[in-house]
Design goal:
Radius of gyration: 24 Å
Number of helices: 8
Strand content: 15-25%
Largest sheet: 7 strands, mixed
Shape: elongated
Strand order of the largest sheet: 1-7-3-4-5-6-2
Number of strands: 7
Structural class: alpha+beta
Number of domains: 2
Distance between the termini: 58 Å
Order of helices and strands: HHEEEEHHEEEHHHH
Length: 237
C-alpha cells in the first residue's frame, strides 16, 4: 500500500527530479490538488455507497446548536454535499427535514417571508456552498431542542496531506490502494510541462487510464445490491 513517501518518490522519479529541483512545498500543493480531484471522481461514481476518506476518525456528521429565530447556519468547508438534515425535537427525537428551493415555492414571495413565524423547522434551503437556511427559523425551545439541535449528514472532501505527514511519510490516501500512484502521475504533469515536455502526453494518458479504472471500481461496489435470487422454472412432463 503506497504511502505519501512512496507517492512523492514516484512523482519525482517520473520526471528525474529530486527534493531540490522539485521542492517539497510545491509537490505537496500539487499532490493535494490531485488528491481532491480523484475524490471528485469517486464521489461522482459512488452511487449510494457513500464513500468517505478512511483517514477521517469521525463520521461525516456535523452537529450545531440552534439559535432561536435564526434561519442561516454555516458549516465546515470540507462538506461537499448534504445527504440529510435533521432537527432535534423537544421530545428528544430527531426529525428529518426536506430540502426546498425558492422556485419550488413562489417567485413572488421570498421563503423567509413565507415562513416568517418561528417554529419547528420543516425545510432547509442551501443558499451557498457552506450555508443552509432553516424554514421556518427555530423557536425558543417550545417545539425544538436548541442545544446541539441541528445535525447534518454530508459527503466531504479528502483528508489532504500536511507537511508534517509528509515528513513522517507513513500516511496513505483514503481510497483504494491500487490507484494511489495516480497522485504521482498527476503531480508529475505540471513539472513535466516545464522540464520534460516529451513525457506530458504519456503521463496524461496514464491519468486517464487511472480515472477510468477508479470510476469503474467505485461504480461497481454495489453490484451485490442489484443481485437477486430467483426461482428457476422447470417443465415437467
Amino acid at each position: 500500500m503506497p504511502s505519501i513517501s512512496d507517492i512523492e518518490a514516484e512523482a519525482r522519479a517520473l520526471v528525474d527530479a529530486d527534493t531540490t529541483s522539485y521542492p517539497a512545498a510545491t509537490l505537496l500543493r500539487r499532490e493535494n490538488e490531485s488528491y481532491e480531484r480523484i475524490i471528485g471522481w469517486i464521489l461522482e461514481a459512488d452511487g449510494t455507497w457513500q464513500w468517505d476518506d478512511t483517514n477521517y476518525t469521525t463520521q461525516p456528521i456535523g452537529t450545531q446548536t440552534l439559535i432561536a429565530d435564526q434561519n442561516n447556519y454555516s458549516f465546515n468547508d470540507k462538506f461537499l454535499e448534504i445527504e440529510e438534515v435533521q432537527i432535534l425535537l423537544k421530545d428528544g427525537t430527531w426529525q428529518i427535514i426536506r430540502p426546498i428551493d425558492q422556485k419550488e415555492y413562489s417567485d413572488l414571495v421570498p421563503l423567509t417571508e413565507a415562513f416568517s413565524d418561528s417554529g419547528q423547522p420543516e425545510f432547509y434551503d442551501k443558499i451557498s456552498d457552506d450555508t443552509i437556511q432553516l424554514l421556518p427559523a427555530p423557536d425558543n425551545g417550545t417545539s425544538v431542542t436548541l442545544a446541539s439541535g441541528l445535525k447534518i449528514k454530508f459527503r466531504r472532501t479528502a483528508s489532504i496531506f500536511t507537511s508534517a505527514e509528509v515528513t513522517a511519510g507513513t500516511k496513505v490516501p483514503g481510497f483504494a490502494s491500487p490507484f494511489h500512484y495516480a497522485i504521482s502521475y498527476m503531480s508529475a504533469i505540471p513539472y513535466a510541462m516545464s522540464y520534460k515536455k516529451d513525457r506530458v502526453s504519456l503521463f496524461e494518458k496514464r491519468v486517464e487510464e487511472y480515472k477510468k479504472d477508479i470510476i469503474r471500481h467505485y461504480s461497481r461496489r454495489e453490484q451485490d445490491k442489484r443481485k437477486q435470487m430467483t426461482t428457476k422454472q422447470r417443465a415437467y412432463k
